[in-house]
Amino acid sequence: LVVLDHPRIKAKYGERIFWLACQEVSSHSTFLLMLAQNIVGHDRISNDPLADIRAALTSDSLGAILFLDNFETPWDNDKPHVEPLLAKIASKMNITLIITSRGTNRPVQVAWTMQPLPPITPLTENTSLSIWDAICGSHDDYVVQLVHAVEFVPLAITLLAHLAQS
Fold first, then answer.
1. Cα(26)–Cα(74) distance, integer angstroms
2. Quick one: the chain helix, strand, coil %, rounded to 5?
3. Whose CB has fewer CB within 10 Å in the chain, the N or C terminal residue?
């Protein structure tokens, strides 16, 4: 979201910045519909959402940026159908595509212009407990077990620490 809010990105893409949270997308048809709703608008979708998306994204030469967050959900649930759909969108339209995913596999049918960034590695136990302590002030043996249970994932630790505060 920091990238999408950057002044240079906003200057280049203006209103053509689209962000889609994919954690609830379970199939290619849901993926296509959510994309169309996000890009075209709920009330302007026809019986051919892909054509609607294509028309919206090719209506000018300025292009658009599409950010797919938690892309592992549609990818893991319906890869044989989601990948060709994503490839069509990426290849036929003037679009910059950014994907975040918990997986290390990426759609190979998309002609990527950059190599993927390396996966974010889990934190150490000490760093995890430091994050916890920065939020909650201290930790006990149960917190140590908890950070192990969430495999030192920063977001999980941060969310749990904020929950523990309340």
1. 5
2. 50, 10, 40
3. C
